[in-house]
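Here we describe the complex-level prediction in full. Unlike the single-chain runs in Section 2.1, the two entities below were treated as one system.
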Amino acid sequence: MDANTLGIIAGILTSVAMLPQLIKVLKEKNVEDISWLMSAILITGLSLWVWFGILKEEWSIILSNGFAVLVNLVLLVCLFKFKK
Amino acid sequence: MDANTLGIIAGILTSVAMLPQLIKVLKEKNVEDISWLMSAILITGLSLWVWFGILKEEWSIILSNGFAVLVNLVLLVCLFKFKK
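The structure predicted for the assembly as a whole is:
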């Protein structure tokens, strides 16, 4: 496989990885075992990747990480909303 | 901030993000709310990033994603080990 195709597949996978976690949280409304610090660090890091993408004018980096930021922001809101 | 520094900080943050989750799991041994599918997709995606790094001969990509693969592999093992 060439590096570009590999990068696209890798980027899609790491971007959508948090989706099953978000769906599970929205369904079950249980968040006790999930670390909010993980979510917060991830949002900070992914946002910096978006900024990096803007500087480099790389749309694939902006879009994939921007999508992941959104998923993780909704997850972080749920972590506080469903906290017991 | 220049793009290279930004990329390094972003890479460190997204690589270590899962550490607080792993520490929480190792301490509390509760994993019911965590999605194993999230963990599995993440490991696949991160491994492809390592492969991408090898093709591009980019040590920063190999090391940061390699570290994240390790953390997520230990997490995935814990998810099955501590499952009730």
